[in-house]
Amino acid sequence: MQKHQTEEVIFGAFSLIFWTFTLIPLIKYICIVLSADDNGEGGTFALYSLLCRHAKFSLLPNQQAADEELSAYKFGPSTQAISSSPLKRFLEKHRRLRTVLLLVVLFGACMVIGDGVLTPAISVLSAVSGLQVAENKLTNGEIVLLACVILVGLFALQHCGTHKVAFMFAPIVIIWLVSILSIGLYNIIRWNPKILRALSPHYIIKFFSQTGKDGWISLGGVLLSITGTEAMFADLGHFTALSIRLAFALAIYPCLVVQYMGQAAFLSKNPSSMSNSFYDSIPDRVFWPVCVIATLAAVVGSQAVITATFSIVKQCHALGCFPRVKVVHTSKHIYGQIYIPEINWILMVLTLAVTVGFRDTTFIGNAYGLACMTVMFITTFLMALVIIFVWQKSVILAACFLLFFWFIEGVYLSAALMKVPQGGWAPLVFSAVFLLIMYIWHYGIRKKYNFDLHNKVSLKWILGLGPSLGIVRVPGIGLVYSELATGVPAIFSHFVTNLPAFHKVLVFVCVKSVPVPYVPPEERFLIGRVCPRPYRMYRCIVRYGYKDIQRDDGNFENKLIQSIAEFIQMEAVEPQFSSSESPSLDGRMAVMSINPVQSSLSLIASEQDFISIDESIQSSRSLTLQSLRSAYDDENPQIRRRHVRFQLPSNPGMDPSVREELTDLVQAKEAGVAYIMGHSYVKARRSSSFLKKLAIDIGYSFLRKNCRGPAVALNIPHISLIEVGMIYYV
């Protein structure tokens, strides 16, 4: 563009920025896309969860009818009106199309993670490059070193959480917006007020007629003016749609437009300052304050994108598309603020590598622009599907939306792809690696789930063993963890056939994620009965949304006992649940709404600071186990579990069979709770293809061995954990 530095070309470039800024962030995102929130959450995964609720697009077959009764699940129009849609039936019928849809969503998520690498690098490096304008003595190496120091400090402070410094963010952003607005107005008035004419799209035509191919290639730089747009939608969960609309329309949009207009006015009279137009256009008197506030604003923007990256990784993990990682809740008062140590340090290493490797904002900008435009392109596609399946509008309207914005974004994307050799390859490489990790993990999870699904233990076989299961039933509660939402997992048969004794009360626990952002605590537990009453076998499905945090509050056992007690009481009162006595059916399930450590109709709960053995209920917990438990609690004071004593209410009208079952439940709780999990080894069958063996035996096996174990992810105390080895041939 060095040979096209005329006033008309500069006016045309500004006109291009203005109309791009108006059509994509203002019209597409503010007016349309923000309306497609998922219970207040935004981003590509929010759109995908909306689609999964209104059509059967999910690849993991663990959906239940009870999930559709969640209050958050009913968000949006009813799905009945589009039940006969030919397009919906076509997509649901073809598994490959649903796989392609998942890959598109994952690719968009990977590009967001790529943004988490590139945004801090380009933001901080651009901000500190202003020092080179003022101090010509500083070399490129010294500027890069200073940027790296700031970046290391930024990532090192992530474990503290944003809430401790968040009070500074709003003043910094407000001062920054006022600064760029003032500088823009100053440059317009001083250098070239005629720039107002460039608001006409006529100058865009002049721009391309004079620049030709060079103008098209320069679009890769123009799109950098809208790179934060997708992050605005992804961070919707932290604000309301109305607040974002008002802030953007009344503050951000006019301030940025005036700033770009001022830069264009400055360049029209100073074309030699093209490479550092922003810092060169700042008046000398306010240069240093603006330089400082620019650096602080870069840190704030980087912080927002890093937080969004943690959030997207958490969502991927919840939907079974990312290996298990440690999720830390950094604020007791602000829900949703999380920190993921592994991801934080990976982002830091990659960001430093990009900063040191490229050393130039132009190359990083090429990579950054390609990543952001790819996510926008994917969002447009998902939004078109939302218009059809969620909003229930016509296919023609969705096609018009898709074609109009795909044409605009496609032009920019084609220009960005031309910059692949000049740094644009970076987000493609990052995305390819993360996409491979995500898909291999999801593929392994799906194959393992299907193996469990097709190898469930027959209820007839269990019923044939009798209430004792053919072995000795000892006092205590056994929580058998499985990913199955229905049926008895194959791991249970290993216990029954190989162990001489088992717990008197058995609960099959399934912790599953549902396609909603949050599940209210009163709707979390779904309780049912597996076999007839004498077997004392229950099922508990614990449901979490993709943004819920599974915090270890030490109260899970007590909530579970209360939920089962409520179910037993309700089952005796409501006849529709008596179908569980049928010898051939798995019992119906019901949502149990309980309050932690409070008395209910079925049990009276009393909290204690120490364990005391009730004389009326003999505990079989040995002194050795008690001492081990005490030592474990002393070593882990931050997750010390509350000792709650349950007692039966003195209700003479209670059914004798219900009282007997509740007594067994209380006695089992006093005897102790054991957590039983399968230590699985997933291997591909010998007849499998080479690619499948590569994915399962090497890829999935490597990820499983190097990620956090399921017991750690589920906050299971290792003192009470029993693991059973099992090989899955998938």
From TrEMBL:
The keyword DNA repair does not apply. One of its GO terms (cellular component) is plasma membrane. It comes from the Eukaryota. Residues 475-728 form the K+ potassium transporter C-terminal domain. The chain crosses the membrane at residues 12-31, 97-118, 138-157, 169-189, 216-234, 246-266, 286-313, 334-356, 368-389, 396-418, 424-441, 461-481. InterPro entries: K+_transporter (IPR003855), K_trans_C (IPR053952), K_trans_N (IPR053951). The keyword tRNA-binding does not apply. It is a multi-pass membrane protein. It is found in: Cell membrane; Membrane. It holds the Pfam family K_trans. Residues 3-463 form the K+ potassium transporter integral membrane domain. Keywords: Ion transport, Membrane, Potassium, Potassium transport, Transmembrane, Transmembrane helix, Transport. NCBIfam families: kup. Belongs to the HAK/KUP transporter (TC 2.A.72.3) family. Potassium transporter. This is Potassium transporter. It comes from Salix udensis.
